[in-house]
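G., the chain you wanted modeled:
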Amino acid sequence: MRIITGDECGLLKESIPELSRPSEDVVKRPQRSLDDGVSIVGNNTTDFGLNMSRPRGVVKLAFCNSRLQEKGALSFVALRLDGSLDRWDGLAPNQSKEDKMCGGSYKMAESMGNVFAKPMHPNNSTNDVWHRGRPIEMCSIPNQNSREESNLVACCSSMGSIAIIDVHKMDEGVIARHAAFAKNQTNSTISHTKGNVVNKDTATTMAVDHDGKRIAVGGRERSATLTDAETGKNLWKAKNLPPNPQTLLQQPIWSTAMQFLSLTDTAPVHESSNLLAIGTAHKQLQIYDMRVNAVQRRPIAYTPEWDSTKSNLLNHRVTSLCQLDSNRILVGDSAGYMNTIDLRKLSNQHGRSSSASVGRFCGPTGSVRQIMKHASQPIIACIGLDRMLRTFDINSRKQLDCVYLKQRLNCMLFCADDTLKDTSSMFEQDDERDRPDDGALPDYKDSINEEDEVEDYVDSSDDENTFDTNVKTDTNVKKDKIVTKYVEASDDDDDDDDNDDSSVEEEDDYSDECSLETSSDESESSTEEMEEEETSSIRNHKRSRR
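Predicted structure as C-alpha cells:
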C-alpha cells in the first residue's frame, strides 16, 4: 500500500504504512523508527522536492496517464499555492512482495508557471500578469472512451476561474478557460455583494463528474453551478433551501466540499441515482438531484440545520467527503470527526434524523483535509492538520496504521497497488499473537483427582456481634446504678430538710462511700465522678430554694 502526500511546506512524500508498524518480535529485531517507510519525493534539489517553501505549498494532487511502458509506472500532477503545476513521473516496483515494500523513484518531468495568469501579449514588453485568485482545487478529467487516466486536469481558483491543461503538453499552456460565476463568457467580471468579502474567496470547492463532461463549483454565498467542460456554458444551478418558517430568513450558503456520487454504486435516492453531495461550512450535508428533468433544484435530502439546543448529526464545518458504498458516505469536519452517514435515513423534513449517523472513525485530532478510499480493498486513508497519515478498515472501523509526517498535510494520492490483499488475515494474526502458547500452560492432568484443602470458615461478624452485646450490657448496668443513686439522694434530702448540719454530714458520708466505690472499681471512676457532680448540683439547687 503506497500513499503520496503533499504538505503546506511544498514537500511531496511517499509513505508505505506497513513499514512503520512495530515489529512482531521485539527481542530479535529492534523497534522501527518513525522514518521507516517514509521518503521525500525527488532525487535532487533541482526537482524542488527537497526544498521547503511555503509559497510553493502543495494544494492538490491528481493522477495522470503515464508515458512509461514499464510495469509499476505512474505519473501525477501537483498544483502549488503560487499557481504553478508540476508533473512527476515515477516507477514503483511491484514484482514481488519485497519490491512492493520498497520506495519508488520519482523525477519531475515538466513544469509550468501560474496557470491562472493572463497570457502576455507579444507586442507588450511589460510583465502584465493577471491573477485570478489563489488555487483551491484540481481534479483529473476522466477519459470518456477509455478507462485509462486522462491527460487533462481542471484547476479552479478562489474567484471561480477554471483552467484546463494538458499535462503532457504544458509548453502549449492552458487549453481552455471558463468562469463559473460570470454572467457570460465574454465578460470576466463576476457579480458580487458589496461588503468586506468583495471578490474574496468566492469559490471554495470544485468537483468533476465521472464522465468528465461537467464541472461543479461552489463557494461562499454561491450556490453550486454546473459548467460544461468543453464549452464553458452553465448547465445547471442549485437553489437554496426554503426560508426559515418563523423568521423568513434565507439559509446561509457556503459549500466547502463536493463529490459526485458513483452512478453504478449508488442506490436510487428519491428515484434518482445522478446525485451530487455537498458539505457546507454551516454543518450540513446536502444531496442534489443532477438530472436535467429533475422536479426541483433544491436538495432532495439533507441533514437538519444545526441547533445548539438539540442533538445534531454534524457539529463542525465539513471539510471532506468520501463515498464508502452505495448507501454510505463518510463526512470529515474541521474538528477531526469522521462520521458515516446513511443516505437512506436522510430526509428533507423538519425531523432531526439522528439515526442517519451509523458510525464514526476515531483517531484524527485536527481538521481532516482529505479522505480517500482504496480502489480494490476495504481501506480508507485520511490526512489533516494533525500531521498524521491514518488508515482504517471500513468494515470494523479499526485504525490500521498511523504515520507521523512532520508537516501539516493538505492532499494525498492512494495508489492502487495490492500490498495488503486481505485485512482480515491481519486481524487473525493479531488474535493469535495475543493467545497464550500451549507449552506455556501448566499441566493440570495429575492434580485433577487430588482433594482440595479446606480450612474452617470463621465469620468475622460473630466477633463483632459479641463485642457489641458486651458493650450494651455494661452500658445498661451503669445506667441502673446512676438511677439508684439518684433515688437514694432524693430520699436523704426529704428526711433532713429541717437540719442543715445533718444533711452536710450525710453528704460527707455519701462522698466517702463514693470514694470507696471509686477505689474498689477503677474501671468506673469517670462515671462515678459524673454522678457526684450531678448529685451535688441537685442538692445545691434544693438549698437555693430553701
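Residues 25-33, 123-131, 420-428 have pLDDT under 50 and may be disordered.

Shout if anything looks off.
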